[in-house]
Amino acid sequence: MLLRTNETIENKTLNNFLTSHQYLIHDLQIDPTGTILVSSSSDNCLKFYSNKDSTWKETFTLELEENTNIWKLAWSPSTFGYVIAGVTFQNEVVIISQAFENKKMQWKQQTTVCSLPDSIQKISFSPDELGLVLGVADSSGILHIYHAEDPSQPNIWKKHSEIIVANTCLRAFDWGLQPNYPVMIITAAINRSVKIWKFCEEGLKWESIFNLGIELEVYDIVWSNFVGRDFHLIAISTEEALEIWKIEKLKNNAYQNIEKERIAYFTQINDSIWKLGWNETGNVLASTSNKGIVKLWKANLLGNWSCISTITGNEDEDNDDDDEDEDELEFEIGN
């Protein structure tokens, strides 16, 4: 397969590169440092690429254990080195990391964190302040949380806690941090329940703080980094719109009067947003839709949010007949 980007952004041309996968690619993820890309495919392999001089080059192919096709990938924070969690079609979560073998560093399938009876909807590592912690959301409405007691040994994982969010599918969740405050998680189930939870060290349990009050089915939800602000920003994609919420800094035992405000609302007509992501500083939001459109959103000095860039994916019409078996991706950048 060929991944191709051929438009120019700020006078820099994006490069094409071959994945060498033989079958459908399920997921692509770039590590937090932006230097390594990993892809998963139906060919039961993970392929790794290194970014040197703005060019992606394949560096390693990991043949997974039998019946370990991975459809979803997630990188850990870079603090813990290169650790990847993957979700298989058998509802297992496996860990892949680098290991020193045969006098060199190689990628290795380390262990299985869990095997769940219900389909897994999302996985996400927590911020590094919490250690090497992984959340796993399933279709029964439970958020399972696992941790590696020794981050230097990513092959040993234990169950940390769980949140019984709802009696229906848990579609999305994200982690939230605030200085001098317990870790938080925001969850979104398909029953239109969007809740914020805080962790209570006593009893190792999670307490629901408040319900955000979303009236539409939620597809994704992301919490921005708490950097240089005295409030939180949470972005939510629903079946009809993209919403951005502002929530005041949380205080202990003062949950009833928390100030929250929806500061942006963008209706999506025939173009549902499926995935969201904040940049590291939490001032630019990226969204992807079911039409293959990526948009970047940012607020101006007055706090008004708008789309600042659009990336549209178009099928390449110039494929040679000899390349019919290769999928090509082409992107156009516009403002």
Q: Architecture of the domain at 165-299, according to CATH?
A: 7 Propeller
Question: Roughly what is the average pLDDT, rounded to an integer?
Answer: 86
Number of helices: 0
Give the radius of gyration: 20 Å
For the record, what CATH class of the domain at 165-299 applies? Mainly Beta
The total beta strand count reads: 29
Question: Please, what is the CATH homologous superfamily of the domain at 165-299?
Answer: YVTN repeat-like/Quinoprotein amine dehydrogenase
Distance between the termini: 29 Å
* Coarse morphology: globular
Content of β-strand: over 45%
Structural class: mainly beta
Strand arrangement, major sheet: 4-1-29-28-27-26-25
CATH topology group of the domain at 165-299: Methylamine Dehydrogenase, Chain H
Largest sheet: 7 strands, mixed
Low-confidence segments: 4-13, 315-335
Write the H/E string, N to C.
EEEEEEEEEEEEEEEEEEEEEEEEEEEEE
Helical percentage:
under 10%
